[in-house]
Please model this.
Amino acid sequence: MRWRSPRAEIEHLIEAGDLEGLLRRAGELHGHYCPYLAYGVVAGYTAVRMLGVRSVGMEEVLAIVETNNCFSDGIQAVTGCTFGNNALIYLDLGKTAFTLARRSGEAVRLALNPEFEESRRAERPELRELWRRIVAERERVSDEERARFMELMEEEAFDLLHRPASKMFIIRRMHIEAPDYAPIYASHRCHGCGELVMESRAGLRDGKPYCLSCLGAQHPILDGRGIYIGVWRPE
Ligand SMILES: [Zn+2]
Ligand SMILES: [Zn+2]
Model:
């Protein structure tokens, strides 16, 4: 049996130029439709077409994202470069921009065009007002208002697919120095909790390996604020 990529359907949508189909796929991952998800879909699609790449998530194609907002889910869904397959490189720069690269270094970077974004924000006053209340102010609103908000965001997201990518983004071909493949680390059994921990993340106490949680040591955390160094205290 010939191996068939689980991304075959997504690749088919890319080949067919079916941006709506791609946005629906991205919505399955993201949970809702919104303009930044649509931006991610258009950016991902444009870059994949420009480089002519297909990804099976083995780090042969790399996506370097510069934000952890909705945009990056569109990128992951369309390019197949994800948080878990190490083909996604995250730069905590807070910019709606991303670079798609082949391992050879051939790359293309797309950054949201500020003028396009400004004109988008001037449209749909009803949506902007709901956004301010629901997202920015975290105001409790009625179910009807919330549904209306989701509906308007969906409408805007799908409408954006009809706008030219060349107006939406500043697009530049470039060459990057691709990083090495992700190293494979051995796992150790933490002497404290008994769980397996990657060698590169284990610390030693009295010559025994421990995970950083058991050591109470600081480690990088990525949450809605971005990356920072701290100690995670879930309990
Ligand atoms: Zn979103
Ligand atoms: Zn432990």
User: Anything to note?
Assistant: The first helix runs from residue 8 to 16. Residues 8-175 form a domain with the 60s Ribosomal Protein L30; Chain: A; fold (CATH 3.30.1330.130). Residues 30, 32, 34, 36-37, 70 surround zinc ion (ligand 1) (CB under 6 Å). The radius of gyration is 21 Å.
